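#dry-run=false #mode=assembly
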Amino acid sequence: NAGVTQTPKFRVLKTGQSMTLLCAQDMNHEYMYWYRQDPGMGLRLIHYSVGEGTTAKGEVPDGYNVSRLKKQNFLLGLESAAPSQTSVYFCASREGQGYGYTFGSGTRLTVV
Amino acid sequence: AQSVTQPDIHITVSEGASLELRCNYSYGATPYLFWYVQSPGQGLQLLLKYFSGDTLVQGIKGFEAEFKRSQSSFNLRKPSVHWSDAAEYFCAVGVLNDYKLSFGAGTTVTVRA
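#status=ok
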């Protein structure tokens, strides 16, 4: 039982490059989330999805796009990376309202 | 506005001593509450949760938390900490009809020998 798997675990990008972070869950959860974690800032919600084919903006959506074409996958894209996007990114999923999150182990992204 | 507050940014405790981490929330509806732990370089792991019923809930790793509606609090406790409890702890709150949880800013726990 893998839970929530994030790939890649580490990545270094140059300013202006693009990349996609993949989140996959094998628990048949409806809801999925992307957070970023920065020192002293806690967890900030970037985007989330309440079902296949749906997405919604969180607190800090600018510079990011997401897609949920399949229920088990939630992709986070950076079209033109900026140093301010250097962060640790966490994906999470949950079965529905009233349930807790299951988190992935994170992706550490550095933009130089 | 809905909010979750963890008043203590950093707590240092001696190994074997007791630990209490504070969490306060401000929500109009009845919340459901969680505590998560994050070890260095790791993701967040669920320690315990409260939905309804008994206001004292037990979790993993010897942790417990008590929901006090009158104080809008959900404090986490452990009677005797171990060096492996050094980590960052997050309180999270949700309400029905909201798709997402709100997280506190976290409390970092340092355990000294």
